[in-house]
Amino acid sequence: MFTKFSSDPQMFRVGYLNGDRIDTTYSPSNVIGKCCHEGLKKYFEKTQEGIEEGEAIKKAHEVAKMHLDSHSDNLIGYNTVASNRSKLEERFAFCFFGYIKDFAYKNNIKEILLVEKMLEHKIKVDGKLLPIPLKGSADLVTRDKDNKIRIRDHKFVKNFSNPESIDAGKLMQGVFNFFLVWAELKEQPYSIVFEEFKVTQNRDKGASQFKEFEIVFSENSLMFDFFYRFYDDITNALLGKQAYIPNFYGIYDREVSILSYIYKLDIVKEREKQFKKAKVDNVTDFLKKKIQKRGAMLKYLESVSKNFVSGKTLNYKDMTIQDKIKFKLAEHGIGLEFDSMVVGGSVTLYRYEPSIGLKMSRIESFVKDIEQVVETSGIRILAPIKDSGLVGFEIPNKQRTFPESSPRNTGFELAIGAKIMGDTKYYDIRTAPHLLVSGSSGSGKSVFLNSLIKQLMQIDNVDIHLFDPKQVEMSQFEGEKNIVDYQYDHNSIETSLNNLVEEMNKRYSKLRNAKARNIEELGGGMKYKFVVIDEFADLMAGENTLNAIQLLAQKGRACGIHIILATQRASTKIISGDIKVNFPTRAVFKMAKAVDSRVMLDEGGAEKLLGKGDMLFLTSEGIERLQGFNL
What we know:
By secondary structure, the protein is an alpha/beta fold. The chain has three domains: 2-303, no CATH class; 319-396, Threonyl-tRNA Synthetase, Chain A, domain 2; 413-628, Rossmann fold (3-Layer(aba) Sandwich), CATH 3.40.50.300. Helix content is 38%, strand content 20%. The strands form five sheets. A ten-stranded mixed sheet has the order 15-14-23-22-21-16-20-19-17-18, covered by helices on one side. It has a five-stranded mixed sheet with strand order 1-6-7-8-9. The longest helix is centred in the last third of the chain and has 24 residues, at 490-513. The chain is elongated and about 120 Å long.
């Protein structure tokens, strides 16, 4: 109240005395502060009711967001803090959740006594009733674990206050709240704590956005002297008497100016009286004596805490996973609204609607933060989910379930794996046209290859060539139906590949003579050939072998020759640019490192897979997460 009168007496009369409201343009910082105050009020009210913290935060955020939405863009003066509505919403979420995170509520507070309760009391000072009642509310009043009552004031600021600079507004606010809280609770408060949250991101992102400092009332008697002088002047002004009212926001030479005001050095008679009492004849000597004698301002400075408050972890324990994700990202200013979730056998997909203008790349950078709060590794972020405007988080299930049935292929439509909903992903292997398979040991790569081979064996119009440098991965298929060639010796593999190149050239001659562009237009007479090569890296030493594989990959499709190439090592030396171009379809199982995933998929994610058949299947339509079958 006093600060409003100090800065603008005319609007004080319109707003405070007459109760009229005038909407003016607000800065983004001002809007954020108002909305966060509304949310914090609800948060502490719910906490006071005993509601668990996760639910209290959720309800508080809903109230604060509703208040934010009620602000028209026409009344917001967008600036560098927030240049548009989207930036404003991000900055609001950053401040709201950041404040709750850093405010050490459970660490220090024993009991919440008042939450923004409007108080009005007639106050006595030294047995004398002040003529004008005091009216106002403190943001929060608590009894702390040291049994002391503290008045807490939430502030959302563009820059932190300088604790070494005397702030007249804070001094006045402290005394004002002191009298109101004392009258309400019948017990003297110990201090006022100003808790500032910086609305703009620190340059040093490791530094806290939250800072608090405390003024202990018993150690700062001068602030009460300041209040009494100011109260007298306002009383006289409201009664129509001439009075000088300093503007808190324009006061300069902080300590000197306040002391000069307290001792009424601006009034000739009062100044002469003070000079005589202090045995001085000038203002400078008088102020030096007062500062040295009382040292009140020095005590004030000493009582200010210059240390940042240590961050507090929100009580995520009692939250649902969807709320954990939402609130963790909100701490970083990222606004998401939960949409739905899909429960799969290996993972559960949590889907969210992002705030307008949110860059997807921002979300992806916080995967470790999500893993920390969900207490699960291997989380994959889909930003966005394919063919939707939603953002997805694939969270591994604590207990995995595997497909119970082993579906059969329908012709060339092979069963690749189970989708997250449990239905089967079928894919025409001929459209691949060549398939690259990779995965570390134990990832399920070999089981997947065996599944494909078994399904291909069920197709009559197919010849299968198996090249097995390790001699153990595919040896069980030698001599089985449709297996026309099984080789494990490097020289024999090279010979077979060269024979396939010759077969490919003969097939092209037949196509040319029949004026057919591909095996489908020829209408019979040629079987499809599927060449399965395990551990491609073991064949890299043979230049002729590589050339043959490259030729088959470049030209084999039209004449019905398709390659399934597998490797455990996914380095750029093994998976060259030429290989990637000719093998656009890829089944990628768990990789050791993110760099290996990027070699295979041009993006990370495979390092997050769970093993045992958990795969990312890349086609021209995008990447899909599947659980492989064990047929």
